[in-house]
Specification:
The protein is an alpha+beta fold. It has a six-stranded mixed beta sheet. Strands 5-6-9-8-10-14 form a six-stranded mixed beta sheet. The two termini are 33 Å apart. Helix content is 22%, strand content 29%. A hairpin with a 2-residue loop joins strand 1 and strand 2. Bound molecules: zinc ion. Zinc ion (ZN) binds next to loops.
């Protein structure tokens, strides 16, 4: 799980990260955008702009939607993960500190995009997505490839004791929240580790999990960060799509 698993690509003035393990899957497009290039430009650079784009009204839940009809208006629905086997449907999430996670099952040809902030993470949105892929498409968790994009790191994610206790309760003994060395009553939370625990417990192989390991909050030269920049911060997009053979 490290940054070498990803490439920073530049196309049509847009900068985005690509997970190398995903690039070997035929007829699959994906990207984690940066602050350099908006969503429309990203989709155009990936040649996905003609595809149906499915996004949810993200509410920090553990709700996973299966897309089986591209004509529905997914933007009006609430939830935090989208999965599909349909070709030419791009599923996407928007983030600015929360962790975007993309999944692909190369065997059953199924994909998913997940929005994992701390609220969704403590509700196990990522393992719920693995289970949903299994139920809907018969995906074996051991076949899944998973890529986690830029999100707030343990370095910057300071929380109060209530949030620290929630994580200790849900992930006992994992020590995901460490007491701040400088501020009493404050904790530093490791969201990525909480996501990794969910993948492992759901049966995803460690060697198939890839993490960009890039903190949005200390990396505002490249990323948008809600915590560093406030409510006016832009949003990045993580998108994945199965395309039809030409
Ligand atoms: Zn940081």
């Amino acid at each position: 799980m490290n940054r070498d698993d990803f490439s920073l690509r530049k196309r049509q003035g847009v900068q985005y990260y690509s997970c190398r393990a995903f690039e070997s899957v035929p007829q699959l497009s994906h990207a984690f955008s940066t602050r350099h290039g908006d969503a429309g430009a990203l989709l155009s650079a990936l040649r996905l702009d003609a595809l149906q784009l499915a996004m949810l009204r993200q509410v920090h839940s553990n709700t996973v939607h299966i897309i089986d009809d591209y004509r529905k208006d997914w933007k009006a629905r609430e939830g935090d993960a989208l999965a599909t086997r349909m070709e030419n449907v791009a599923v996407a999430v928007r983030t600015a500190d929360c962790v975007p996670v993309l999944l692909v099952d190369p065997m059953k040809r199924a994909i998913a995009a997940v929005h994992a902030g701390w609220r969704g993470t403590v509700k196990r949105i990522l393992s719920e997505t693995v289970f949903a892929l299994n139920r809907a498409f018969g995906s074996d968790p051991a076949d899944l490839l998973v890529a986690a994009g830029p999100g707030i790191g343990e370095c910057c994610f300071e929380t109060g004791v209530e949030v620290a206790e929630l994580f200790e309760k849900e992930f006992p003994g994992a020590s995901l929240a460490q007491a701040s060395p400088v501020q009493a009553g404050k904790y530093h939370l490791d969201l990525w580790k909480a996501l990794q625990i969910q993948l492992k417990s759901a049966g995803v192989r460690e060697q198939n999990c890839h993490n960009l390991n890039a903190c949005t909050c200390c990396g505002t030269g490249r990323f948008f960060s809600y915590r560093a920049e406030g409510a006016a911060a832009g949003r990045m997009m993580a998108v994945i799509a199965l395309t039809a053979a030409e």
